[in-house]
Each structure stands twice: as C-alpha cells, then as structure tokens.
Amino acid sequence: MSADWFRRRFLPRGQLPAPRPPRPRTSPVPYRRPRFLRGSGSSSGTADASRRPDARPVRSPVRGRSLPWNAGYAEIINAEKSEFNEDQAACGKLCIRRCEFGVEEDQEWQTLCSEEFLTGHYWALFDGHGGPAAAILAANTLHSCLRRQLEAVVEGMVATQPPMHLSGCCVCPSDPQFVEEKGIRTEDLVIGALESAFQECDEVIGRELEASGQVGGCTALVAVSLKGKLYVANAGDSRAILVRRDEVRPLSSEFTPETERQRIQQLAFIYPELLAGEFTRLEFPRRLKGDDLGQKVLFRDHHMSGWSYKCVEKSDLKYPLIHGQGRQARLLGTLAVSRGLGDHQLRVLDTNIQLKPFLLSVPQVTVLNMDQLEPQEEDVVVMATDGLWDVLSNEQVARLVRSFLLGNREDPHRFSELAKMLIRSTQGTDDSPIQEGQVSYDDVSVFVIPLHHQGQGHSSR
Amino acid sequence: MSADWFRRRFLPRGQLPAPRPPRPRTSPVPYRRPRFLRGSGSSSGTADASRRPDARPVRSPVRGRSLPWNAGYAEIINAEKSEFNEDQAACGKLCIRRCEFGVEEDQEWQTLCSEEFLTGHYWALFDGHGGPAAAILAANTLHSCLRRQLEAVVEGMVATQPPMHLSGCCVCPSDPQFVEEKGIRTEDLVIGALESAFQECDEVIGRELEASGQVGGCTALVAVSLKGKLYVANAGDSRAILVRRDEVRPLSSEFTPETERQRIQQLAFIYPELLAGEFTRLEFPRRLKGDDLGQKVLFRDHHMSGWSYKCVEKSDLKYPLIHGQGRQARLLGTLAVSRGLGDHQLRVLDTNIQLKPFLLSVPQVTVLNMDQLEPQEEDVVVMATDGLWDVLSNEQVARLVRSFLLGNREDPHRFSELAKMLIRSTQGTDDSPIQEGQVSYDDVSVFVIPLHHQGQGHSSR
Fold it and tell me: Which superkingdom, per the lineage (chains A, B) (predicted)?
C-alpha cells in the first residue's frame, strides 16, 4: 500500500464519486456456523435449552469432538437484533511447510521439501457488523493468510536470531551484529507475519465482498501457539485475558473510536476532505448547538491528551467525527470499532463519506512466553467477543473461571462447560454475578484455552 | 494550526524553495547561564574545581540562594564539543491570576481582579542543539506561556470538575453530566495548558530566531506543582524519575527517532514529497548497498511492530529516514530527538529537506498526586538532561540518591550537593559507579526536587 494508492482510493479530485452499486459476479457467501459445531444443531442435546423457556440456546461442540489443546468453546445468538449470529469462530492446527533453499540454484528459491516443518495451533473469533459475510470470509481465510505469511519467513525462524538475509548468507560480515543490535528476535517475525496476514485477509475480504455484491465488516481476535509462545493479535473490541490462580492479565486492548481518538482526529486533520464538510474533527463533551455559539467550551484536538476551552464557531456545530463515550462512542455516527477487516464499501448514511480510510486492519500483538510462565493446572486464556465484556469485568470472569474449574476437575469437557457457564452468566439468570438490568443481548462467543502442559517440548520439526 | 497551514508550509507546489538566508532584524539572543546561578561564576568557590586538574567545573547556586521547595541544582559544560553550554535551566514561583467574570457585562470577560489567585512552582531543563539560542529563549519564555495558558482556563480549575462552559453557566441542563461521563478532571485542564504552552513557546522561538538570524532547537522537560499535584511534561530525551526508599518510578519517557519510528515513518508515507526522493522511509537492520539488490532482507514499515523480509529494490538503497539505533539513531541523518522546540529552519546538510515537519513540540505529561503519595523524608524527583542518563541507569541514580541523603541529613544545601555528586559520577572519577570508558562528555544539568512536606495544605487562594 502506498500513499499514492491512499490518495487515489480515498481522495478523488473534484466531486466525490457516488458509491458504485455492487454488481454481483459470484454467489453470496453462504451463512454457516463454525465447522467444529457440526452435529450440535440448536435442536440437538448439546444446545443448552436452558432453564427459562424464553432463553436463547447456548451452543458448543458435541461431546467427543476435541479442539486444539482441548480448548472449550460456546456461543449464543443475539436477542433478534439480527437474523443471523454475526460472530464467527475458527480453530485448528497450523502446519507451516518449509521451502528449502537450493544453494546450487543461483540463489533462487525452490521448493525441495514441502513437508510440514513447524506446527502450531490457531483460535480465532470474529465479530461481524452490517451482515455476517465479512466474519464468515475471515473465518474461512485468515488462517490460510497466516500460514502463507509464516511460510514466507520460516527460514528466518530456524536460527536463534533471524538472519539479515533470508538466504542465511551474509552479504556484509557484520550482518549478525546489526540484527543483534536492533534486538530483532524470532518472535518479531511471527508478529510481522500476523500483521501482514491481517492486511492480506482484509484485501481478500474486500475483493470477495465486491464480487458477491455483499457488504459488512468484522473485528478479529486471534491466538496462535508457535514454538513455545502464545501470540494474541487483536483488531477490534473483542478481548483475551490470562487467568491464573493469583493473576488476571489482559492479553489484548480494545480499538474503538474512543481509544483511537488521536489517530482518527489526526487523519481528519491531514485530510479534511475525508469529512466532506459534514463533520467536525474536534471533540466536545456533548454535541454543540446554536446556544453555544460564541461561548468558551471544553474541547480536544488531535494533538491533545488534556482538555482546553475554545470559543464556539459555526463549524463546531457540525456532527462530531467521534461522538458519544464508552461503548456508545461512534466513528462518523456509524461504527463502534476502529480496527477490523472489511467495510470497504461502508459509507455514512445518505452520504458518500467513507469509513474505510479511518479503519486499520493491522492488529496489536502481545506475546506470552509459555516456557517462562510454567502454567499450572487451572491456568487458562479466555477469549470472547464484546458481548461478554459488556456485562462482566475481567475480575468477575476470573472468579467464575477459578471456582468452576476447582469444582469440575474430572470432566474432560470442562472447558466447553466453562465457556457455556460464562455465556449463561451474561443472560441474567438467577445465579449470575451481574446486576439487575445488565444483560447481554448481543452475540457472544467464548474460547477457553487451557495452558497446562503446553509450555514444554514444543515441536519444531 | 490547520492541515492547510501544514501543506502551505511544508509542501509547496513544484520545486522546493531554497532556504531563505536569515536577515537579522533584531540583535542575537545573548548567551547566559540560568539566573539562579548568579554569583556562582566558575572562578568562584561554588564552582567545584574538583579533584583532577583536567576536570571541568561543576556549577550550582551559591549557598544561601534557595530554589523553590529547596530544590538542588548543578550543571557541567561539555568537553569542548561546543563553545557554550547548550543546556539551560529555569525555575521559580508560578503565579496564576484570576480574571473574574462580570455577570452584568452581557457575558463578556472583564478583569475585575488581577491579583494572584493560584500559586505553583516550576522547574525546567532545556537541552539545546545547533547553538544555545533556542534553549535560552525557551528558558526565558516557556513559563510565561504556561502562566498565560493557565490563566485562560483558571475559572475552569476552581470547580470540583471543569464546567462545560468557562462562564460556569449551563447552556444545556445536563452539561455537568456530559463532563462527568467524559471523565474530565481539573488535571486535564493543566495537561491541556502544558500542551498549549509548549506549542505557543515553539512559535515564539520560531519568530525570535528568524528575527535575530539565529538557528537551533532544544528539548524541554518541565515539572510544575499545582494544587497538590506534580505535572511532568517532556518533549525530547531528558528524563525525570521519582526516587523513594522502595521505589524508582519513571515520570517521563524519551522521544527519539527510535521511540517515535512509527509516527515518523507514517508521515513520510502520507507525504513522500517530504523526503524529496533522497531517503527511504523503510527501516533495515543496516544501510543497504549494491550487493543486497534482489536479496530478501529484514525490514519494517510504518504499520509494523514486528519484522518481515522484502526483496531489495534500488530505491531501498537510499539513506534511511531513521538510521542507527539507541542513542545513535538519527532522523534524516541529522537529529537525535523527535520532539522539542525550535529547529524551524533546520535542513538536511546541502539539501532543502526540512526536519521540522517530522518534529512535535507537544509534550507527554504525567501526573503525580502528592496527596496520595504521602512523601517521606528522602523522596525526591531527579530531572536531568540526557548526559546523565547516557552513563547512569535509573537504578544507579536511585542508589546514589539514597545513600547520599542518608549520610547528609543535616546539610540545608544537601540537594544541590546531591546534584553535584550525581554529575561528578558521570565524569569517571575514582568513586564513580560507572564502568571504565563510560564517561559523559555532554553538557549535563540536574534538578533534585525534594517532595517531603509538599503534598499537604497546598494553597489555592
């Protein structure tokens, strides 16, 4: 992606073009639930018909079907907010093949050996909006993008430290020293591969949605285990936390119009034409109105962490680029997240103003060193879409996790049972820890990944 | 500042204009040392002629001259790197006047009472480059800018929570609720005032340097005490730390081409014309050369935290936008800091490529709540320019501070003595904790601010 590309794509000279009506060339992306839920239809026994007649069913994999690391999973559809469950999930083994370097071949690449070389595991949650298509495409695609990106750098992951040249041959005798001084580690290649995979997947989704005449976007939260480390990549407002006996550690942070205010305001400062004269980039405590004209009111611009006062002018009365606070904050009055995949065609209602230039597909990646962690019996990672975190805090989830696992040591399906219990806790049932009125009406999807016995003896060949 | 202004200033159409030769209209900014050092000339007894004949003198205020909070100060000039000491310092009482609102006056502002309303204290260090002028101007000016910015919002600082309107009158009955929901506190107004003051000061320096035909820039590290809180604002590579008996807490972070890589690369991505085809925005472990062409080498772009490999093209052989690592990292081969004041005319040697568009004058501000801290006898804040931190770690400084204060409880000038001792520790004397060869040849300036008895009973009228 280049700056020229950005300008051509988002800053056409003269009038903004009307959005092209999508002309479907391929059939629509078919709706489906995650593959690993097969056999657990909502009419089957594994869907939890719960204790209340009006309750929505909680679904999880059929007993006997095991997910990577014996992880647990459960999901619930929203309370008729949309026809489909817009959350999606994927998990599986990640097989990285090695493309060996043919030394004789004049430094060209050759696939001499395409056997599995490195194996890891992959769990992913996608929370769709504007339709289920983007999340389904992401669940079908992102792991392949990641595999491809990892295979492109796998030679660099073999050495203790990534070599300056992928061939491993030093052009300059002090190459290893330069890499050492920059502090570049194997895990930086995995982080780079995750960053590239999210971007590649975003491009695939853009092409596929255009081809099928569909729209929509999704957040993406991914956990990947590789060579003794667990990588958590997040673009959106889902969340992953580590729960141990004495510790609750966030493994991701949320990307919303509120948390990314300065980045978004700065883009509007650099390219004011993106707002087409319809929005103000400034933040005020509330939307201003005629009575405020000429008054000095609290405001913040892109370069400010603090607040100051400014004299209200007419242009300040426009609708704010970011409006509302907390979970209610919206970008251009439209979107509650600032990172994710898709949304290539999304425009502000009844205008040509595009959302996409303000959205990032690149995730933030955190790394958990499993060898250093020495995971204990009840240590787990909980990954869930925002529907769970809207009503339960990290600490509340941790308490539920600890007490459930303590009382269910023998059940081989206890991690899926735990995922189901967490979802039921958001539904306002009698034994729920949440307060009256704090019920999740959103789609909720939860992975519980046990860490015990996973740190040691990771296979690297 | 608007985006249009940025484009007019930095992105002229067609050929880049040659830098205007400065035409002095005013006399040059005269060189001087901080006012509070008067009477402590290097020939006087307070300049520490040290134990070695070749040692440079360490200067500190004359005994009997007390700085705010009985703070200590010391400085040393560099080892003939430049003719002048390019560090500067300032400190004093900060008197904020109140401009009372004339209710009868049809909602206009009137100064009914210009008496001192709020008092605070101010300590500042400036580390100049390209000449001493910018740092001297900053030392002469920044506190006035800050006072002006604080006076502009002081009415908002009176209430428990800043009002939506500076007049205090609600236009909308739920105004307090909006401010409450946004979590806007009094300290956010001080942070906003510090941010605005740095920017205002940068503009003043730009005008003054142009008028006097001088050049240069400086970093700025400021501590301000106000209403029971200590604010530390930093733009550059100086550093402030809190040292307590059981704790060492950083109160600032450094802004260098290395720590601000992504911001700087992103600007070059958005405005490639800023590099005039002479630099590559990509980061590589070392500068590439002809032999690397066609090879796959490690690289990072603006959107990446991790590393990946790319096939080297001819344009990758250009000089990197950010080159070198750690203390050696340079922006456009020229500057070691990425935030600060001044440098309005700075260009890459023998080109018209400007540094200023890549520099921020806005500081990062951290807040220390003195009431919550309950400072003990030996709790201090140490502020120093990079010359100190180049050779001493936070932990080493903390150990020196603790052992010195423990052994010098009675001396009323012990904080200046401590500042002098810290500077001597960077000069490679026998009892210095630094290793052989790790000696600071840079200018070094140090404030030591004692916190005991400062949290309680702060005056607010």
Answer: Eukaryota
